[in-house]
Amino acid sequence: MQHKNIHEGRRRNQQTYAAIIRAALIVVEEKGYSGTSIEAIAKAAGAGKQTIYRWWENKAHLFLEVYLSLACEEKLHADTGNLFDDIEALLINLFVIYRQTPAALILTGLVQESQTNEDMRHHIVDMLITKRRGVVGSLFERAKHRGELHAEADIDIAVDTISGAIWLRLFLKHEPLDNVFAKQLAQQVIQGVGL
Q: What is the pLDDT of residue 141?
């Protein structure tokens, strides 16, 4: 992860680090992303602001790391041997994370902040779009290798379709991100990409 603390090789105190991450999760659930400050996180963690700023450039960098730990690739992984089941399983895993943790709240806050913060926009594109596209895209690549998907299938469009549908519900909250939607979206994408 391309954060200041990694570049500088600073060694984290694991107990303090864990306390900061726990505090960030508690405070963001209580106050929302925009209402959360480094000061509030430091107070809740029993840590100094200087410690947080030594490890993360700002609130957005801290919450990007928190989000990536909540919705890490290992928790989303699906390899059932069937494209529909892979997509459905990945989506169900992601939606459970969104329902049971503040990951969705954090993600929407980060995306909103990226609209006025060019540095954050680059991090969002790198960590949450480029790399995550690879996670979803790998499901389709495996399907191609199995002969389940024709070689000309447009994986980029399929991945964009999945991401766009999720983000629409995530931001507008007009419909739930649930197992029914996971199944519907998987079916729709497979029909669109063509087997």
A: 93
